[in-house]
Specification:
10 strands, binds iron/sulfur cluster, 387 residues, alpha/beta, 15 helices
Amino acid sequence: MDSADTLRLLTSQMSFEVDGEPSPSSPTPGCFSSKERDQAFVHPAQLPNGQRIMLLKTLLSSVCERDCFYCPFRSGRDFRRATFKPDEFASLFAKLSAAKMAEGMFLSSGVAGGGARTQDQILATAEILRKKHQYRGYIHLKIMPGAEKAQVYRAMQLADRVSINLEAPNTERLAKLAPHKIFLEELLEPLKWVEEFRSTVPAYKFWKGRAPSTVTQFVAGGSDESDLELLTTTNWLNKNISLKRAYFSAFNPIPGTPFEDKPPTDPMREHRLYQASFLLRDYGFDLEDLPFTSQSNLPLQVDPKQAWAQTNLRDRPVEINKAEKRELLRVPGIGLRGAEAILSARKLRRLRDLSALRKLGVVAERAAPYLLFDGRRIATQMELISR
Ligand code: SF4
């Protein structure tokens, strides 16, 4: 197998890892067709700062000595494995970057020879890219379970983003999913180290003078955990680890694993978890504001913000010309940008109708049942029809 074949194999095996926002409308870089791009397994992704890049997501090795129940790379599973040497992969990626086929890289790996040794290989790859190939683009590095504190620091000096996947919300749930991963010592502790370095090390010591962002990923439905458990841990991470984002990956059974007969998780659950996590992170919601069922899950059929508004705002609508930002953010249809736009527009004029809101980027029909315009409710077309 040559390097390109190895890359195709490893990137094709990496589809379950998430970074950025999939962005189907991202432009194709000048000289490559979408077919050529797909052959290289480079995918459009939108970074948190809004920048759109072509991201190569790959593994340094699909060999793994661990046996997580849900994972396609678990030891003993029969499939074709491959491994890159750090300099081999760095050279290949440098060529892809020079050809503008990849503008960023997300590098993970199976664990071989222990977490620290595997982390060394990942760090060596990033070092070669940054130093020998003078690569200055986006790098997202995975922190391996079992990595050492000094390795976490080095990763933060090389990368724009680091991630440590918790997979499950707590020790008990992780034991059902990955019996040889240790939740507190191997996963949560390194996340705390990242935060410790972020708050104690001068920014100039990090890559481009900025501490990297931190993300984690959960396998939603993999350990029969509840949404409340997932969101409690996410909320704690938001407040204590400055987590940029929690990713939720709906469990899907993989043939040849102990979970091959476990039913897949409804993708709508993943969607509701994302909605709820954004409410916690950006909209001032607390866990108790979320509409958990008696089984501590979010209802699948209703948007959690809509459910909150239905209970709390239907009879106490928000005055659009007076409300503070935190009140506006509670209204369905008003997002972060919409709330800012309303505050700016109000300095110039009073908002009198839904068309004024539409111009500000608000989903006016969704917001209308929960708003007053100078003491007046405005019925929407849909509301009039349903009366
Ligand atoms: S350690 Fe990572 S790659 Fe290995 S089996 Fe577990 S989840 Fe899969």
